[in-house]
TrEMBL record:
GO biological process, any: cell division
Record's keyword annotation contains Protein transport: yes
Keyword list, A-Z: Acetylation, Cell cycle, Cell division, Centromere, Chromosome, Coiled coil, Cytoplasm, Cytoskeleton, Endoplasmic reticulum, ER-Golgi transport, Kinetochore, Membrane, Mitosis, Phosphoprotein, Protein transport, Transport
Domain named Centromere/kinetochore protein zw10 N-terminal: residues: 1-39
Keyword Heme: no
Protein name: Centromere/kinetochore protein zw10 homolog
Domain of life: Eukaryota
Domain ZW10 C-terminal helical: 543-697
Subunit-structure text: Interacts with NBAS and KNTC1/ROD; the interactions are mutually exclusive and indicative for its association in two different vesicle tethering complexes. Component of the RZZ complex composed of KNTC1/ROD, ZW10 and ZWILCH. Component of the NRZ complex composed of NBAS, ZW10 and RINT1/TIP20L; NRZ associates with SNAREs STX18, USE1L, BNIP1/SEC20L and SEC22B (the assembly has been described as syntaxin 18 complex). Interacts directly with RINT1/TIP20L bound to BNIP1/SEC20L. Interacts with C19orf25 and ZWINT. Interacts with ZFYVE1.
Domain Centromere/kinetochore protein zw10 C-terminal: 391-521
The organism of origin for this protein: Phalacrocorax carbo (Great cormorant)
């Protein structure tokens, strides 16, 4: 019994395995049959142009093949052949669908690759088929049939992406970028043509309303003839999900289209003046209407997009744009030529905007109180009053670009007073940025000219002083008219004043050092003023003196009417003093001066004394300059010393002793005893009289 039982179990196991094998073979054969049937039905449907049915059959065949390939242990050679056949048939169908798609939507593009110019864009056309050609019996609308077939085969996304990119490149973006471009629609018997015409634009940029209307027209046409097609889209949970072609296309191109509309349309429409901000409500309204129209055509989903957010956030964009424009305008002024000048006098002032009265309240009461106090105490005032020009900038010339820069600062602050709090703060700090930019840009951009040209160095000095002068009161003037956040002492520019004064002085002092160096270099060719009885030496010294005077006269002319008179006189006085000091040092160092040497040295010094004051010409009117030429000893420290040297060169021993007057005379005020003794030893021979004279110099 045990043996029979074992035999029966073995037979049962074998039969069971055989049954499983047969069942598996049967299921594989069934799948192969299904694949074959699907391919046959696909061919039939394709011949009848039933594209959706054909696509479904191909999809069915694909799923059969996947099932067969997933069976391990049954690697049939036929599967490879079936795979090749399926690929061939899929490509065949895609070719047919492509042909149909080209009939439905035909592009006529510019011949050249350059599509950016207006002329090439004018050649772009889109032809949309409106009715199926006669004699073709298609189940359902041809458009829906073709697109649904693409969707089933998973190729719709690719086709739509190509169409969307062409639409953006050749129709939508040009309409946004070129104000003169207008869409032109033409409906023919079986085709709808979309092309362009060019009109003379009234403005450089189209208004958002005009652009939205153009784009809306394009989408209405596409919606009517192409995009209003519901499609069955398989999603992850395998349920059918119906969407329209408009939704799919919208998902693909909206982000890029939205960016283009913002950058090339809305950005240009942001007002540059706060008074125009209220009118911007129209733009926001038209943006809302534009988006609503696209949502109705199912091109857009229900959420608020970046486009509308950008339009609604106009205050922030206005502030950013205004600040950017201000900085760009300021930088253009800073990099313009310095030498175009305007005259500034104590009577002149920057074209100040008319500021409104401070807000009613404490400030107004304070003004009224101060008026009453003034009236009551008028008779107590000191009779001596300060000049009305005490705190004025002295007469000088500044660059016209700097005057415009200050006007820009005032106008921007005035704009800030009429803006929202956030915008007010941004504009205020933009004005501060203007001055910080000046501090960094001008000395660097004009560096070479400021070093080489004395007049430009003087102008830059004046420009810096002019800006510093206005910065002292600029914040105070607007203090009560800016937002509360800035009213508590933050609205100030006074901290920038020392930096600007230093910037102007450093540049001018650097130029003074250059001029001093040139004077000393010229005097170095005077051969130390020794052996003047030698004609060659005398000519060299005379030439050096003449060159120095010529240099000073040239400087006197280029700085004339540019520098304030007091700065001019100090500068010219310092340079003339450098020359005189060097001459005195060289002559005082001589060990031997003959009578002829002394005469010639005297004539050279006389040239300096006679022509030196003539370099002081701070004003264009000659008769007004005499006053400053007479005041030369005030500005030239070594002037009296130089004149005393001239007296020594012509005096006898007794006269020198008299000038010394036991250390109390005019000579003692300018020279030390050692220097006078040295000059006496150089000028006079060693005699008892000289020894007596030297004994008195102590």
């Amino acid at each position: 019994v045990q043996r029979d039982l074992n035999v029966a179990v073995a037979e049962f196991t074998e039969l069971k395995q055989q049954l499983e094998r047969d069942t598996l073979v049967l299921s594989i054969l069934k799948k192969l049959q299904e694949f074959d049937t699907a391919i046959k039905e696909y061919n039939t449907a394709l011949l009848e142009k039933k594209y959706v049915a054909a696509a479904h059959q191909l999809d069915k065949a694909r799923s059969c093949l996947k099932m067969l390939e997933s069976r391990k242990g049954f690697e049939l050679k036929i599967l490879k052949a079936l795979g090749v056949e399926l690929t061939v048939q899929t490509q065949n169908m895609l070719y047919h669908l492509g042909e149909e798609w080209q009939k439905l939507a035909t592009w006529k593009l510019p011949p050249s690759k350059e599509s950016s110019s207006l002329e090439s864009v004018m050649h772009s056309e889109l032809h949309l088929r409106t009715v199926p050609p006669k004699g073709e019996d298609i189940a359902g609308p041809p458009l829906a049939s073709v697109l649904q077939a693409f969707a089933v085969l998973g190729e719709l996304h690719t086709k739509l992406k190509i169409f969307g990119q062409l639409l953006l490149k050749y129709i939508l973006k040009p309409l946004i970028s070129y104000p003169s471009l207008q869409p032109l629609t033409e409906e023919q018997s079986d085709v709808f043509v979309l092309r362009f015409k060019s009109e003379e634009p009234s403005l450089d940029h189209s208004s958002p309303m005009e652009v939205f209307d153009k784009i809306k027209l394009i989408f209405e046409v596409l919606h009517k003839y192409l995009l209003n097609v519901p499609l069955d889209q398989p999603v992850e949970d395998k349920k059918e999900h119906r969407v329209t072609l408009a939704q799919l296309l919208g998902d693909m191109i909206w982000e890029e289209l939205s960016d283009c509309l913002i950058q090339n349309c809305l950005v240009n429409s942001i007002p540059t003046n706060s008074s125009k901000l209220e009118q911007y409500i129209e733009v926001i309204k038209s943006t809302e209407e534009f988006e609503e129209a696209l949502k109705n055509m199912q091109f857009l989903k229900g959420d608020t997009t970046d486009l509308l957010k950008y339009a609604r956030n106009v205050n922030s964009h206005f502030a950013n744009k205004k600040c950017q424009d201000v900085i760009v305008a300021a930088r253009n002024l800073m990099t313009s030529e310095i030498h175009n000048t305007v005259k500034i006098t104590p009577d002149s002032s920057v074209a100040l905007p008319k500021l409104p009265h401070p807000a009613a309240g404490d400030h107004l009461k304070m003004q009224e109180t101060s008026k009453l106090l003034r009236n009551d105490t008028e008779n107590l005032e000191n009779e001596t009053k300060l000049s009305q020009y005490t705190f004025s900038l002295p007469s000088c010339r500044i660059s016209s670009s700097v005057e415009k820069l200050m006007e820009l600062a005032y106008q921007t602050l005035l704009e800030a007073t009429a803006s929202t709090d956030q915008c007010c703060i941004q504009l205020f700090y933009s004005v501060r940025n203007i001055f910080q930019l000046f501090y960094d840009v001008v000395p660097t951009y004009h560096k070479e000219n400021l070093q080489k040209l004395p007049q430009l160095a003087a102008l830059h000095h004046n420009n810096c002083m002019y800006i510093a002068h206005h910065l002292l009161t600029l914040g105070h003037q607007f203090r009560y008219r800016l937002t509360n956040i800035l009213c508590d002492g933050a609205a100030t520019f006074v901290d920038l004043v020392p930096g600007f004064r230093r910037l102007g002085m450093e540049c001018f002092l650097a130029q003074m050092r250059v001029q001093k160096g040139e004077i000393l270099e010229r005097l170095s060719s005077a051969r130390n003023f020794s052996n003047m009885d030698d004609e060659e030496n005398y000519c060299a010294a005379n030439k050096a003196i003449r060159q120095v005077l010529h240099q000073l006269k040239r400087l006197g002319k280029v700085w004339q009417d540019v520098l304030p008179v007091n700065v001019y006189c100090k500068a010219m006085g310092t340079l003339l003093n450098t020359a005189l000091s060097e001459i005195v040092t060289r002559i005082a160092a001589l060990e031997d001066i003959s009578a002829e040497d002394a005469d010639r040295l005297y004539s050279l010094c006389k040239t300096m004394v006679e022509e030196g004051p003539q370099v002081f010409t701070p004003l264009p009117e000659d008769d007004k300059n005499k006053k400053y030429q007479e005041e030369v000893p005030v500005y030239v420290q070594k002037w009296m010393m130089f004149k005393e040297l001239m007296i020594i060169l012509q005096a006898n021993l007794q006269e020198i002793v008299d000038q010394w007057a036991d250390g109390k005379g005019p000579l003692a005020a300018e020279f030390s005893a050692a220097e006078v003794k040295s000059l006496i030893r150089a000028l006079f021979q060693n005699t008892e009289r000289r020894a007596a004279a030297l004994a008195k110099i102590k």
